[in-house]
Amino acid sequence: MKVKPKPVTDDEIIAAFAGTNFGDTHPKQVLATGVLTIASGMACGGTLTSIMRKMKLLKVAGTLTCRGKMFMWEMYHAKAIAEAIGTIIPPEEAARRAAATAASRAAIIDKGLSDLCNPGGPAVGAVVS
User: Fold this and answer.
1) Which of 26, 33, 115, 117 could be stapled to 121 by a disulfide with Cβ–Cβ 3.0 to 4.6 Å?
2) Best CA proximity match to 106, nearest among 74, 81, 67
3) Is residue 37 a contact partner of residue 52, using CB atoms and an 8 Å limit?
């Protein structure tokens, strides 16, 4: 039985980035860019790589863990849908919608994770039905 990895929290991100300097870019955006970079087969700088390993998003071999894939999916999936339909949802509305659809989102994430974390599952970004 697969164990669902715990989600990456904002507090965890802030703690992991304490003492670092990535300019004006928010640490969550730096981390999202990092996991996307790794998923694309490229490498990140030493500090970001170390942070991703410490947060258990990156394996020693340099590939994403299941938790790293989940974080990437959460960061890019909703934004891609919003851009595809031509709307950017204000944060307050996004929070309201997320609360209203938490159960269905959890089911979608569980299904997506079981496929993402399964070595024979679909590629990252594949449509999960």
Assistant:
1) 115
2) 74
3) no
Task: Determine contact, residues 52/35, Cβ cutoff 8 Å.
Answer: yes
d(CA 55, CA 129): 29
Q: pLDDT tier at 69 (50, 70, 90 boundaries)? A: very high
φ, ψ for residue 58, nearest 5 deg: -135, 130
Number of neighbouring beta carbons within 10 Å of residue 57: 24
As given in the structure block, the two tokens for residue 88 are 């950017």
Contact 66, 5 (CB under 8 A): yes
Query: Which residue's structure tokens are 């979608």?
Result: 108
pTM beyond cutoff 0.90: no
